Amino acid sequence: MRDPGLPSLDQLRVFIAVIDHGGFAHAARALHRTQSVISYTIANLEEQLNIALIDRGRRKVTLTEAGKALLADARAVSARVDGMRARAKALGSGLEAEVCLVVDVMFPMCRLVMLLESFQREYPTVALRLHTEALGGVAQMVLDGRCQLGISGMPVHLPDHIERQLAGHVTMMPVCAPSHPLAVIDGIIPAATLREHLQLVVTDRSPLTAGQDFGVRGLRDWRLADLHSKHALLRGGLGWGSMPEAMIAEDLANGRLVRLRVQDGDALQYPLFVIHRADDQLGPAGRWLKDQFLELDYSLPHGAY
């Protein structure tokens, strides 16, 4: 038995049309061809593949078992070619092939998911690379040129060629587990009392803010590499620390964490800035993302995450 030949894209699309339109005559009308041309194309495709695709012993167009399996392949090939053409058209018009975005770990994930869903609908051909970093890590990735766009938290000293715009704020709350000694203190907790207990802090992996402490009040602290580790340790009662309101709303509602009333304020407005390099202009998709972050409503319904 000879090996299958190489079918053309046109043959595959005629095959798909015959099935989707329910017959040779309907496919001929949809493709503006004669029925004899459609029949000839399908026969040629079967000859190329060395296998019957359509059961001609029935009045209604019916796929053979092999035809059912190969129809899925034909659809996949056609879709990939359409995708390639769409991407080529977009690239030819100046649209980026890819956007690299780095977001501060404090950014509310529910808002990010909604925004990126819109991005996917608006720019289906543009690939996205998403990173999450803490503190100066966001600015470092933009500064190094690894990401075109960043959503950065606490302000750090940046060179003049980094543009920065305030986008909004995230509410940070000091919390601990109900089993923690701080949880049973009535009234406002003095700063001296707070300092006596272990504080859980997300560490910075960037040299931009090396040696700087943001919101560290405890005499003893544990430095953690990511926010989710901090969240887990807080719920385990291993210390206290501040967390984004959106991330712990459910824990506060069900009693897994309790909010601390502390002397110098029990909530912090954590700023979020949109940053990018002025000497590396954003493309259409990057500019769209930037505008969406600037227009985003950062106030969250209770319990959203």
TrEMBL record:
Residue span, HTH lysR-type domain: 7-64
Pfam families this protein is in? HTH_1 (PF00126), LysR_substrate (PF03466)
Is Repressor set as a keyword in this record? no
Q: What UniProt keywords are attached to this protein's entry?
A: DNA-binding, Transcription, Transcription regulation
MF annotations from Gene Ontology: DNA-binding transcription factor activity; transcription cis-regulatory region binding
InterPro entries, per database record: LysR_HTH_N (IPR000847), LysR_subst-bd (IPR005119), WH-like_DNA-bd_sf (IPR036388), WH_DNA-bd_sf (IPR036390)
In the UniProt record, the signal sequence range is: none
In terms of SUPFAM superfamilies, this protein maps to: Periplasmic binding protein-like II, Winged helix' DNA-binding domain
Give the family this protein belongs to, as stated in its UniProt record.
Belongs to the LysR transcriptional regulatory family.
Protein name (record): LysR family transcriptional regulator
Please name the source species. Answer: Pseudoduganella lutea
